[in-house]
Design a protein that fits this description.
heterodimer; A: mainly alpha; 5 helices; 2 strands; about 75% helix; B: mainly alpha; 2 domains
């Protein structure tokens, strides 16, 4: 547990450091101006440097702290269900403006409720139609939002 | 006098049909998300954000504020009935609330809680009303140096006193501030950090970040551990009336809790959670039933519940009069103001008295509504505990995605939502606080603005930022707090660990 915590936090710090350096690199061309007339580059420079230092602090804390915390990630069935659900959500996000709101949402809800709820196809289908209709009614009829349509329409 | 005139004007605004409806929807949703497993007031407030774009700014703030203080009621209901706190401010309520349920006193406990929460909110609101003109006048002396000091010091103190160690707060804070610099910058319209990708010029939007970090990530934790739908008892309204003894023992804790909460709400930190903890500690020493504390003493529920509601109420003061949110939910309220093009800050009460006093008056109205929702209609919320988590989860995922999309009709925001969801899940697991990320994202651009204005004004003289009296005092207090916390750590190691168990403001 504490091992996961140390490795996880160190990895997060390392990623943060990479981002901070990328951030500083991308910001190198922004005009710094002078102190009496500061340019758009001065604040990002300060932020980038502190971000990098804090990231190093995270790595150091993760590896050196005497009392490490505990991080417990799910295992076995729980982990599988979590990953599958996350993946389904990503596919939904990517496909919503390809398949359109209606089809994508029906598919997501059927898949999600079947995976998480261990319920019958009938129940899953009913929840899918119900949720899709409610959300569609609220956003399209009440709020007048244009929801993504399928690319073929 | 001007406060009473302002408040009367505020009631005029709060009783407009649109605002009454906004308050009712806000407090009802707040109670619901407080009760529902896996979705806290913060996730609820984030999910509602896209809906508020179309409303008037006053109605938008009233609704989000309603979710915030309504969530304090709902979160405690599950603490008492199921020993499961709905949000962190209700953790303390489980200590005596659940034993009371086991003794068969669930109904009266919920009654005492609801009345105490309302009493505390009223006390806090009266103090807020009396204070705010003074605070607003104080704020008029604010220039760039003071704003820079109050925001920077606020973030530093917050990182120091929130749960977890320093880097656990600073790391997300810096991510938030860096993310806030993406897009066109306000002074000279130079595009920054867009990596040549056109949609990024408009900058990142708060909505997908907040919904992803708090709404979707919470659902994913529910997926990981779905549990079973809990069995809850039926509660009949006529069984809810407290005994004379219970009434008598509750007045003291209500009053003390209200004052503690009011003070905590004005300070940086997870005020609702910390104030309920402080109130519980106090009741352990002074309450009539202190011998029973932990085994089902009504004071152990009455005090902390009063405290967290009073804190939720007074927490609005720094937001409305200084533009300074001390928790992530309050940051969303600030963001809603900015989305409507209203500059929060000391000028708000004079330039937009309708918003300032309207929101304060609506909190009186909203708390009365909560009393009705939580006593005669408690059965509805209890039955809501039977909503299966698979149905709730699917619904939240769809509303999160569509709501995010609807804000700008933009797919970039939806991709940011998915990214923020993964980050929210992992960061929570690894013990990083998420509230500083939102605060940094919102306050970062403000800090930059005041920094640059200050440098212009002082012709590049950095001492300008510390030599003006208010700014100097703020920096002094901040240094004192940092040193104080350090000394406290040395002398009483367990304090920091106890604070850590309270965790950051969700």
């Amino acid at each position: 547990m504490t091992r996961t915590w140390r490795i996880g936090r160190a990895a997060a710090g390392a990623l943060g450091l990479i981002f901070a350096l990328l951030y500083l690199f991308e910001g190198r061309n922004l005009a710094l101006g002078r102190l009496r007339a500061p340019g758009p580059g001065i604040f990002p420079l300060v932020v980038g440097v502190i971000f990098a230092l804090v990231s190093i602090g995270v790595i150091a804390d993760a590896l050196l702290a005497k009392t490490a915390g505990a991080a417990s990630f799910p295992k076995g069935e729980d982990l599988k269900r979590l990953l599958v659900t996350f993946a389904a959500f990503f596919v939904y996000v990517l496909l919503i403006n390809v398949l359109g709101f209606l089809i994508a949402t029906l598919l997501l809800v059927i898949f999600y409720t079947r995976t998480v709820g261990r319920i019958s196809w009938l129940q899953a289908g009913a929840s899918a139609i119900g949720i899709t209709l409610v959300v569609w009614a609220v956003f399209v009829l009440v709020l007048g939002v244009k929801l993504p349509l399928p690319i073929w329409s | 006098m001007e406060a009473i005139y302002g408040l009367l004007q505020g009631f005029g605004v709060a009783f407009l049909p649109e605002n009454l409806l906004a308050a009712l929807i806000g407090v009802a949703l707040g109670t619901a998300v407080g009760v529902l497993p896996g979705l806290g007031p913060l996730g609820g407030a984030a999910l509602i954000l896209p809906f508020t774009y179309a409303m008037s700014p006053t109605a938008a703030i009233i609704m989000i504020a309603g979710i915030y203080y309504g969530g304090m009621y709902g979160g405690s209901t599950t603490s008492v009935l199921l020993n499961v706190p709905g949000e962190t401010a209700s953790v303390v309520t489980t200590l005596d609330g659940y034993p009371l349920t086991q003794k068969g006193r669930a109904g009266p406990t919920l009654f005492i809680m609801a009345v105490g929460s309302a009493v505390a909110s009223f006390i806090s609101l009266i103090l807020v009303t009396l204070w705010s003109p003074w605070l607003a006048r104080f704020g008029l002396n604010f220039g760039p140096a003071e704003f820079f000091a109050v925001m920077t010091c606020g973030l530093i103190v917050l990182s120091r006193v929130s749960g977890g160690n320093l880097v656990s707060n600073l790391f997300p804070l810096m991510i938030g501030i860096a993310a806030g610099t993406i897009g066109q910058e306000a002074v000279s319209s130079v595009a920054r950090f867009t990596f040549g990708y056109f949609p990024l010029i408009a900058g990142l939007e708060l909505t997908p970040i907040a919904i992803g970090l708090f709404g979707v990530a919470e659902i994913m934790r529910l997926v990981e551990n779905p549990g079973s739908t809990p069995k809850v008892m039926r509660i009949r309204v006529r069984d809810m009336l407290p005994s004379r003894e219970e009434w008598r023992r509750s007045w003291g804790p209500w009053g003390r809790g209200s004052l503690i909460g009011f003070v905590f709400g004005l300070l940086p930190g997870p005020s609702a959670a910390l104030s309920s903890y402080a109130s519980y500690q106090l009741e352990k020493k002074v309450a009539i039933g202190r011998a029973e504390m932990g085994k089902g003493a009504i004071e152990g529920v009455a005090g902390p519940e009063a405290a967290n509601n009073a804190a939720a109420t007074s927490g609005m003061i720094p937001v409305l009069s200084l533009g300074l949110p001390f928790s992530a939910t309050l940051a969303l309220i600030l963001a809603a103001l900015m989305i409507h093009g209203i500059q929060p800050g000391p000028l708000l009460p004079t330039q937009h008295p309708d918003i300032f006093w309207g929101v304060i008056a609506s909190m009186f109205v909203g708390n009365l509504m909560l009393l009705v929702l939580n006593i005669p209609m408690i059965g509805i919320w209890v039955s809501m505990l039977r909503v299966p988590s698979w149905l709730l989860g699917a619904f939240v995922l769809v509303v999160a995605t569509v709501g995010t999309y609807s804000a700008r009709n933009n797919m970039l925001d939806v991709y940011v939502l998915a990214g923020a969801a993964v980050m929210g899940y992992l960061f929570h697991k690894l013990g990083f606080s998420l509230a500083p990320l939102i605060l940094g994202f919102i306050l970062g651009p403000e800090i930059e603005k005041h920094l640059r204005q200050g440098l212009f004004l002082s012709r590049g003289d950095l001492t300008y930022f510390v030599e003006r009296p208010i700014a100097a005092a703020l920096w002094g207090i901040t240094i004192a707090v940092i040193v104080g916390v350090l000394l406290l750590r040395v002398f009483r190691r367990d304090v920091s660990q106890r604070l850590a168990t309270l965790e950051a403001d969700p």
